[in-house]
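tool_call: predict_structure(chain=1)
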Amino acid sequence: MSDGLRIFLSTFALLFVAELGDKTQLAVISMTAKHKMPLWVFIGASLALTAVTLLGVLGGEMLTRVIPELVLRKIAAVLFVVMGLLMWFDIL
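tool_result:
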């Protein structure tokens, strides 16, 4: 299997599992139920998620030019823990 295909599949699997049952999916369910136009909700949601992903990819690519990948991973881990603690204590 090529490196590109392996990266594609692992990214797809990671994001698919991470997004199941999250607030984005619940918002899409709500919009579909409210408007009864699933195709348009799907198109809008797909474009929004694509735009957010593009920002993440471009931002990540730019950051790795300045900050080493290992440091970025550690910063991300700390931010996830901080956000989790803020949510735990109902600060967010």
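agent: The chain has a mean pLDDT of 92. Proceeding to next step.
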